[in-house]
Amino acid sequence: MKTSNMENPSSIMIAIAWCLAWGDQRKPKYKLEVLQQMQQALKDGEDVPEEVRFIVEQVQKLQGIDKDYLPKTLDELKSEYPDLWNQIIRIGLVYGGATKIKPYVFESAKIQDIRGASALLERINVYDIPILFSQEKKSISIYQWRHEHFADLEIALIPELIIYSTGGNVLAFCPAAFVNDLANAIEKRYTQETLTANSCAVGDTFRLIEIRFGLLREPIENTHWLDWYRQEYKKPLVQAYFGDLEKNIENAKTERCTNLAISIDEAFADRKSFNELTTKLAILFNQRRSGHDFYSRPSRRYPPMFETHPYLMRDGSDRRSAVMIIQPPELPRESHFSEALARKHLVGNRAKKGSNIVPKWYQNSQLEWQNLRVKGWVDKYNSFLDNNPSLKQKYYSGLKPDDIEIAQNLSHISNASKDFIAYIYADGNNLGGYIQKIRTPQEYQEFSKDVELATEYAVYQALAKNLHPHKLYKLNDEEKLLENGDLVHPFEIITIGGDDIILIVPANKALAIAKNIGEIFEKILLKQVPLGESTESEKIIGDYKIKQDSKPIDLKKCHRYKPTEAPPSQCQLSTSIGVLITAYNTPIYYAKDLTEQLLKSAKERAKKLKKAGYCGGTVDFLTMKSVTMISSDIKEFRKQALTKNLKPKLKLYAAPYTLHELGGLISVIEVLQKAKFPKSQLYQIRNLLERGKQTAILNYRYFRVRLKQGKPELQTEFEEAWCQPKDSKNRGNLAPWMYDDGALENDKSDYPLFETIWRDVVDLYDFIASPDDDIDAIEAQMATTEGDL
Asked: Which pLDDT band holds residue 167 (cuts at 50, 70, 90)?
């Protein structure tokens, strides 16, 4: 038996010991004072009470099992751990959280309501739910709510029971008798606070030994174990549960960065662990969300319903009947509120100002619901900058944080980029595969904290490195929320939850911010962020570095831009990002849909590149200067409008890009801007792309020869960097084309083809801020001393 030392008891150990000591009934097996003494003694590293010492020793044995240990037979497991085998007290495990988050957040088209919906869900997840586990009166209102609806939970739950509560989800232990109570409390809290947000929570009970070795039958001897799996692993039903082992072995020949289980024992061990328990809860979660009735709990398959009538006035989201109409000057414009929308607007106001003052319009509404103070994302961002003086100086450039206002609407953000904004939607790559390798609740907890930390701090650093407070000018704001000369934070953080990120930023900084987010996310997880850039990077616990294969990776299959200079993939986790650049008055629901399509496209590219050994981030983007430019589907638009079925086939775009390629694309645009490349010729070359490969090459060379300036830069940064032929011995180039032989595609019927970045360059030309234009901070400083002009 392999064991590891247990010098410092973890919160997981305290949680399991608490559940065992409580027992299977609603009343604790031992006196509550004994349980509390055990909890405190484990925290302080002191001796636990005699009554529960045997239980603590059992938990220590469980925690001391090496994560790589797998008994060959059940008899070996029984002989090695007889106490764990014979422990019959069950432990509760609950999983739940909000569902259909985006429909709730983006139900309204107003940024303050979106901000409020996001802040309210964030507050419930990271503040309200954890307080349910607290025995201290940290929040009187939540304490009273718990006492009124779930009084038994007051003494049954402790903070250490929470494995994680972030990203809109919570996973927690609890005494077996309170599984349904806790699941109901989670669902009820979301519904009672938001009125319209969907939520779901499920739970089950498990034996102590199952926490380490997965689901076991009753009696345990009837459980299928390793000897059975070795004989049955090729059967389709077994493969559906444990994974297709032969396919994984085949993929492992090329996917060197995924740490795939290439042995039968490892594949079995990955499934027969704590991961199997969470998988069961995930299945129950999906069943309940889809409408399955659990006999022991009331149904929650239907969302909250509100009566309406065709002759009643609707609220601002046009979903429910309005219960109040607020007139100016209480609000800048006439507003129709249902109670659900009023709560969003109130929370959005508090998240914006960081104040708990109830506005007059809400006081006059006589609604009874009172929200707690909400900490907005800008407040969290400023807290981060306070701990990172160098980034604070770079962002504020000597300005006082108290002098900077939060952008009240999208026009204030677009004011920093010629009335254009960008939606950035990022999501993690490879997280599902990594989670499948997690075998203990301690690893689950550490992984959740690491991803949350890396995601949030990657956003903060990217914003601080690329933006400055913006001084509003030529502002046409009918609501007069802010005036010309006011300084604002030129960004809006919609949400940062788990591995999801939704931001709104100025269009001219969007791609640089997206690139930085992807790069910094990986660097934080690899602990490569220099001290002073992120003081929290030292808190990363897990090891996410790729174990490189001895066989080198062909970088030419991964990158089209200077592949020999591209850094190899180092982190097992990365991000895919969708970026939509559009006018500020584009309907938010429409922009959200397009951004989600771009994210999906970026993730598809990441999956293909993974076969070639690239595990880093990918970015897809679209510049939309007209709302009617695309009807609905980006993929179909590109297929019909930007793909020419000539011989050879031509793609007039090259997105999505890897992070390395995106840096090269930005470099091309910056070089063209610096050389003052004539815009008319940019557009002419773009238009000639549609006439065929040879015609485009001939006309490109004609224009390049006639250039009076920028010729060397264009040759170095575009032709030599992007347009090299497949045969490296050929000293020529294919500019403005790149050759694609479809090496990463399963269906090669459309290959080989030629693609080009030129159209992307032209589309982005006005949306890439050159270094000479980055003077927002200097202008802001001048405004504070010289006054408004």
From this structure: confident
Average pLDDT over every residue of 654-671: 94
**Which tokens is 386 given?**
């306070």
Q: Tokens in use for 699? A: 């006309």
Name the nearest CA neighbour of 454 among 533, 378, 531, 525: 525
Whole-number CA gyration radius for the chain: 29
Is the CB of residue 499 less than 8 Å from the CB of residue 431? Answer: yes
Whether the per-residue pLDDT at 777 is higher than 50: the answer is no
How many CB atoms within 10 Å of residue 528? 15
Record the tokens describing residue 604, joined without a space. 């598809």
The predicted structure's pLDDT at residue 395: 95
Distances (CA, A) of 137 to 132, 145, 251, 369, 522: 10, 12, 53, 20, 39
Task: Judge contact between 570 and 545, C-beta under 8 A.
Answer: yes
Tokens matching residue 495: 């949400």
Neighbours of 710 (CB within 10 A): 18
**pLDDT tens-digit map of 100-145:** 888 899 988 888 899 899 989 999 998 899 999 987 776 778 888 8
Secondary structure element (H or E) that encloses residue 165, with its range: strand 162-166
- Mean pLDDT of the 235-251 span: 76
- Do residues 164 and 170 lie in contact, with contact meaning Cβ atoms separated by under 8 Å? yes
Angle at Cα 390 formed by Cα 384 and Cα 391, nearest 5°?
Answer: 50
| HSE-CB for 364 with a 13 A CA cutoff | 10
Token digits of residue 407:
């952008």
Specify the 3-state DSSP secondary structure of 274: helix
CB atoms closer than 10 angstroms to residue 501: 25
End-to-end, the C-alpha distance of the chain in Å comes to: 77
Q: What residue type is 96 in one-letter code?
A: G
Helix (H, G, I), strand (E, B) or coil at 504: strand
Dist. CA 785–CA 781, nearest whole Å = 7
Kindly report the backbone phi and psi dihedral angles of residue 337, in degrees, each rounded to the nearest multiple of 5, phi listed first. -120, 130
Rounded-to-integer distance, Cα 445 and Cα 760, Å:
42
* CA distances, 469 to each of 394, 461, 777, 789 (Å): 11, 15, 7, 18
Res. 296 pLDDT band, cuts 50 70 90: confident
Convert the pLDDT of each residue in 185-228 to its tens digit.
999 999 999 998 989 999 999 999 999 999 999 889 999 999 99
Q: What is the pTM of this model?
A: 0.91
Q: What's the whole-number average pLDDT of the chain?
A: 86
3-state secondary structure 623-649: EECCHHHCCCCHHHHHHHHCEECCCCE
How high is the pLDDT of residue 84? 93
User: Other C-beta atoms within 10 Å of 451: how many?
Assistant: 26
Please tell me the total number of residues recorded for the chain in this structure: 789
